[in-house]
Amino acid sequence: EASLEGELGDLSEAHLNSNSSGQICVTWKGLFRSHHVHLPDYSGALFLTSFFFVQMMKFAWDNYKLYALGKNELRPLTKNGHIGNMFGGLRGATVIDALDTLYIMELEEEFQEAKKWVEKSFDLNVNGEASLFEVNIRYVGGLLAAYYLTGEEMFKSKALELGEKLLPAFNTPTGIPRGVINLGSGMSWSWGWASAGSSILAEFGTLHLEFLHLTELSGNPVFTEKVMNIRKVLNRIEKPQGLYPNFLSPVTGNWVQHHVSIGGLGDSFYEYLIKSWLMSDKRDAEAKKMYDDALEAIEKHLVKKSAGGLTYIAEWRGGILDHKMGHLACFSGGMIALGAEHAGGEQKQQHMDLAAEITHTCHESYSRSDTKLGPEAFRFDSGTEATATRLSERYYILRPEVVESYLYMWRLTHDPKYRQWGWEVVQALEKHCRVEAGYSGIRDVYTTTPNHDNMQQSFFLAETLKYLYLLFCEDDVLSLEDWVFNTEAHPLPVNHTNFKAKASVH
Ligand code: DMJ
Fold first, then answer.
1. Is the per-residue pLDDT at 86 higher than 70?
2. Which long-range contacts (CB under 8 A, 24 or more apart) does 491-497 make?
3. Annotated binding residue at 487?
4. Atom 3, ligand 1: which residue's CA is nearest?
């Protein structure tokens, strides 16, 4: 491996070609000579390509460790750490988010460094305003996945301790939690920007997977009770045209604003419905029905085709469509494919086609930019197709949703184009986001003049690099039969036999 590492050279110029029978050819200019590797099957290419991703992860981690260990994120241009105000005094978001990726990539030394930090320096006795959602998906999810992959009790006890600290957020008249919680005092309140003190669908709807595991591991039913009550409230209220608006009052239990989106503010609520059913080993019929009904309403009211033939999912504001898709909404290709797998008859093909079309549209949002990375939001109006029209929507912050859909589409269809598309992303990341000390987001995907935002998001290590790596692994590495990924790509085991406490990926 060492000699290959020295030989890698400029990865951004590497080309990966595959033909319909699955042959792969990788060409790249190494430091000393050009390489041209033609492989009769994926196995050799798998080694090469996954080797690249491991190097990328190591580079992202090493720089975080060097300049920002113990802070939440790395600022790769100024070479320092960033704390931010999302995690209420908790630190080390990148450490916790990176744990499972380091582990599955077999970056043993780096995993031990991360583990040691969690053991010795991760402080849970903090005061400050935390996002319930972010702490749950990154910290609780990250610790749970680390526990299930390694069997190390330390991860489990920290996950449980943190889970307990989130419970006061549910003390509202309806039991719908508020978005912000002080982890020290237990005081909770709604986001200042959320209209009329409302709670956000994608926030209170993205707790189920983690909370079921907290009950499983602690024996304490309270976690499951809290999330089952959320479901009860949602089932009780009327849905306009069968759609779920993004804002709900935790006091009255009524919708506050009729904005519906499968992107930001709504997204992972839908994801957690289908994944709750899968994680229950297909026993949670209620979650499946909620997912099926929601998707039916989305198909009926929000799925549209552009003049140029691109399928997209629009947003809905009180009955008026906004013909825009956020990068966040691009996870839905993967989600719909995952659900389609288990649909019956005609619907299976219909949903698989929809998933492929959405993933294709999201790929178009990448391929129509100069950097080959996609914007934060793209539109389908006034002659625009899959392109950002507003200056404020041209940025790319290392988000995973598009490669996430490539991974699911690959696993479920084995169409080689998804690996090809994943490879395009790798090359674009190397060319436009890699800087001297890590990876950075960019402010404008439509210019190749460097315009870095100086932030290496923790989800780049948790999700983007993990999904890319898995895209080039065999299907049995974190198989979709045995694992569900939480919305931060932390793998949680499927309840085949009462959640096997320790599962091995290798
Ligand atoms: C991540 O924290 C999660 O994927 C979440 O569901 C959405 N936002 C980021 C990545 O874009």
1. yes
2. 491/100, 491/145, 491/148, 491/149, 492/141, 492/144, 492/145, 492/148, 492/209, 492/210, 492/213, 492/279, 493/148, 493/279, 494/278, 494/279, 494/281, 495/279, 495/280, 495/281, 495/283, 496/281
3. yes
4. 488
Tell me, in angstroms, the distance from the centre of ligand 1 to residue 10's CA: 29
Catalytic residue check, 129: no
Taking residues 106-129, what's their average pLDDT? 97
Sketch out the chain's domains with CATH numbers: 55-493 (1.50.10.10)
| Amino acid symbol at 116 | K
Examine the pLDDT at 101 and tell me if it is beyond 90: yes
| Assessment of whether the complete model's pTM goes beyond 0.70 | yes
Per residue in 360-408, pLDDT tens?
999 999 999 999 999 999 999 989 999 999 999 999 999 999 999 999 9
Decide whether any atom of ligand 1 lies within 6 Å of the 100 Cβ. Answer: no
Residue nearest to atom 6 of ligand 1 (CA): 487
Range with lowest mean pLDDT among 17-31, 211-225, 352-366, 438-452 = 17-31
Pull the structure tokens for residue 385. 């197709």
In angstroms, the Cα distances linking 276 to 132, 160, 244, 290, 501 are 19, 20, 18, 11, 18
**Catalytic residue at 134?**
yes
